[in-house]
Structures are given as structure tokens and as C-alpha cells.
Design brief:
Blueprint: H1 2-7, E1 9-13, E2 16-23, E3 30-34, H2 45-51, E4 56-60, H3 77-90, E5 96-101, H4 103-114, E6 119-125, H5 134-150, H6 153-163, H7 166-171, H8 174-184, H9 188-199, E7 215-220, H10 228-237, E8 241-246, H11 253-256, H12 258-268, H13 274-282
Parallel strand pairs: 3-4, 3-5, 5-6, 6-7, 7-8
Antiparallel strand pairs: 1-2, 2-4
Helix pairs in contact: 2-12, 3-4, 5-9, 6-8
The protein binds D-malate (MLT).
Amino acid sequence: MLMQAIHAKIKEINNIKVSYLDEGPAGTPIILFIHGFPLNKTMWSAQIEELKSTYRVIAYDVRGHGNTEIGTVDFSIELFVEDLIRFMDALKIEKVTLCGLSMGGYIALNAALSFPKRFESLVLCDTNCVADLPEVVEKRMNTIQNIKKEGLQNYADESIKNLFSPLSVRKGISEVASVKNMVLGTSEPTIFRTLYALANRKETCSRLSEIQLPTLIMVGKDDKITPPAAAEHIRKRITNATLIILEGAGHLSNMENPRQFNQNLIAHIPKINSALESEKSRG
Ligand code: MLT
């Protein structure tokens, strides 16, 4: 949270002010991070801290989350993709390595399918390509009703059990408390609008063979929400994809096993400095 308070910047796009972190030297390859639900850009602290001496690293708050404004319209994955592309345009960035976790992965997959030329490579973490089954939609709608009745505390407590591996919860790693604060700090309207967006999202599995970008897929071995089998399902359908299963991690693999996560991420980032070329060509 401290990092967010000190370094956050603001860009206005699509009638909302977007809060983001932008660290590291200009002219180096750019990695753009998209967080999961209902979290915010600070979930990438361990990646930003390690990568920022070598790469330009950008993490933004998705509409309504963290310190980004909610706006006045209903949410959808398509709207989140539009926000992402307009955000890149506003920063005059032509191409990035796009790294998304869970909901961030849904946004990344849709963005890669709709705007393949805007990405150098993809990193898909703890995510899936299927649409919600009817029972998952029902669960999301029940969550909305429960929060309306009881507020966010119980939802935050339950979320922690699902997001982290039992080991991380037992060890009481500091990330558990910070994620709980992220959940409690997200407004109820944002949670409701995002739950509708997630419930209404379309599957992308049938289009994955269109993706030609080098793709790294990472997943926590103990991820209960999007388990390794979901990651393997994606790997088989993307031509140029590698799958890494991270030990000692649940759904928030970048926070639970940052060492292995960062090693694999750094090994994946394209070494060619086309980021600089593309920044130059946009003037
Ligand atoms: C997330 O971590 O972004 C959520 O678990 C995604 C979802 O609920 O589908």
C-alpha cells in the first residue's frame, strides 16, 4: 500500500481516472501487469521491486479497483480490454509483454485475441479460458445478496481461504493480511459490477489457436479456483506456450512463490528491445 501511496500516477481515459505505477528505465522492454479480482495493482509489489532495475514495469488498477474511478457504465471484460488499450495509447506505448492473473488473465486473453499486434508476449497466471458454469453464476449472484445483507467482512474471510494455499494461510505470510485489506478496500458497487462482468464473460478456449505470441502460463500447484488442469487446457491450445506449475502456491502464485514466479517471468521476457523501437515510432 505504501508503494501505491508514494509512486502512483494518474491517466484519464474512457471517462475515468486510472491509477497506475510506472517504474524502471525508459527504453527497456515493458511488462504491463493486470491484477485479479477484487484486488489491485499492489498485488504485483514483489514483481515490480525485482524487475524495475532492468525493465519498465507498469501495473494499473482496473476500473473501480484500487484507486481507479468506477465510472458510470456497467462492467464487462470487453470494457476492461478497451480501458487497457486506451491506457496504453495514453502512455504512447505500442507494445508490451502483458501479464495478467485470473481476472487479469481473462482481460489479457481477450486483449491478445482482439489486438494481437499490441503485445510482444503473454504471461497468463492462475486463469482459465472457460465461461462460468450455471452453478458458478449462481454462486456469484448469491455472493452479491450476501454482501448486501452482511457487508464485506465475511466475504473477505472466505476469499482468503480460496485465494491462498492452506500452507500460506497457516504460515500467516504478510500477503494474507494485505490481500484481505485489498478485498475490504474494494467498494461494494465495484464488487457487484465485476461479479456480473465475470458471470457474463465469454469463453476463449475455442479461439486460443489464433494466439501466436510466445506465452508463459504459470499456476500455483494448490490453486483451487483455476487449478493446474485449467492451465494445461490453455497450454495445449496455444501453439507457442510453456506451462510452469509453482510449488507452495495457491491462486495468488506471484505473491505466494515470488522467487520462482519472478525467475520464470524474467526468463520469458523477450530480449529484443522492440519496446524502444515502438515508443520511437509513435513519436
Ligand atoms: C480472480 O482472482 O480474479 C477471480 O478469482 C476470478 C474469478 O472469480 O473468476
